Amino acid sequence: MTTDSHCHNARDPFELAREAADVIADRSGIATHELALVLGSGWGGAADLLGETVSEIPASEVPGFHAPAVAGHVPVMRSIRIHGTDRHALVLGSRTHYYEGKGVRAVAHGMRTAAAAGASHVILTNGCGGLNPEWAPGQVVLIRDHINLTGASPLEGATFVDLTDLYSQRLRDLAHEVDPTLPEGVYVQFPGPHYETPAEVKMAGILGGDLVGMSTTLEAIAARQAGMEILGLSLMTNLAAGISPTPLSHEEVIEAGQAAAPRVARLLADIAARIH
């Protein structure tokens, strides 16, 4: 398994993103998608509540995208006209995870494509483990900041990007207008695909983490480089190893996601409708 960012794609990643955006525009008939969404485990149903689906394109037919490696992820690009507006959302149903070994460029490709398609805002979602024993599975947490433990970055060469306010305070305030009870937390990305050990979870907590998962941070950095405003939402599907008295299973994560799905879908659709 290799994670070198250049090995799978020698082409300029921004050129590939423009090509992908052109295909989406041609196939969907929509010149600009103002908002992009990445729907992680448990979040898929939100797309149906956002508005009218104008177009669906199999991800494998868009340059640079692959069919997803994870059960529960839907391999289509959806163009949705957001309810009551003339704005369009691009739902990227084909997230590439770092642990798939396709390289960091492949992980960042969705964000670069969204930016090339005109998106000025992106909502990144995930299913994750929680460190706060007061949070029950099904709790949605706004990502306030992150810790990237993958040892990788989507930025190449002498590209210096400020991440001070990576997760937009403005967008978190909008989310709090929809649900004032939403807690905020720091998301810690481990490389995966194995779940974290209890000692690693303890380390994440000592570092200041509240949530542990295997996605999101590299995409957020790529989105910031592309100039997008970012909202991060985590669905806590389980208590992390060592916090939870029982062993973790992917089935459990999927089940918790399914149980919370109608509620989180409504929440996400309501937040997305407010983003301009």
TrEMBL record:
Residue ranges annotated for the Nucleoside phosphorylase domain, each copy included: 35-271
E.C. number(s) listed in UniProt: 2.4.2.1
Keywords carried by this UniProt record: Glycosyltransferase, Transferase
Enzyme class per UniProt: transferase
Catalytic reactions of this protein: a purine 2'-deoxy-D-ribonucleoside + phosphate = a purine nucleobase + 2-deoxy-alpha-D-ribose 1-phosphate
Sequence positions that bind a purine D-ribonucleoside: E196, N238
GO biological process terms held by the UniProt record: nucleoside metabolic process
Domain of life of the native organism: Bacteria
A GO cellular component annotation in the UniProt record: cytoplasm
Similarity annotation: Belongs to the PNP/MTAP phosphorylase family.
Protein name: Purine nucleoside phosphorylase
Organism expressing this protein natively: Schaalia canis
